[in-house]
Amino acid sequence: MKKYYVHTNAQLSGEHEVHQEYCIYLPKEEHRVFLGAFTSCAAALQEAKKTYISVDGCKTCSRNCHNR
């Protein structure tokens, strides 16, 4: 299982991006929230949607859940 975080600042397009623990684009601690450990990025996105309406997977670390 991988640990996932959501960026607390939305991108210009409005989505809050979900990252895996070791992503090179993982935001600093003050700009992220730990979502939990999941077997897939889809499960992490569902957890992030409990807080943020619009979420997207990181193009680098969560490519399977990246929509743009």
Keywords:
mainly beta; about 10% helix; about 70 residues
Q: What's this model, at a glance?
A:
With 68 residues, the protein is mostly beta strands. The protein contains 1 helix and 4 strands, in the order E-E-E-H-E. A 4-stranded mixed sheet has the order 3-1-2-4, covered by helices on one side.
Q: Give the strand order, joined by hyphens, for the main sheet.
A: 3-1-2-4
Strand content: 25-35%
Alpha-carbon distance between the two ends: 25 Å
| Morphology call | globular
Report the mean per-residue pLDDT as an integer: 96
Q: How many β-strands, per DSSP? A: 4
How do the helices and strands follow one another from N- to C-terminus?
EEEHE
> What share of residues is helical?
10-25%
How does this model look, in words?
The chain has 68 residues and is mainly beta. 12% of the residues lie in helices and 31% in strands. It has one helix and four strands, in the order βββαβ. Strands 3-1-2-4 form a four-stranded mixed beta sheet, with helices on one face.
List the helices and strands and how they pair.
Layout: E1 2-7, E2 16-20, E3 32-38, H1 41-48, E4 55-57
Parallel strand pairs: 2-4
Antiparallel strand pairs: 1-2, 1-3
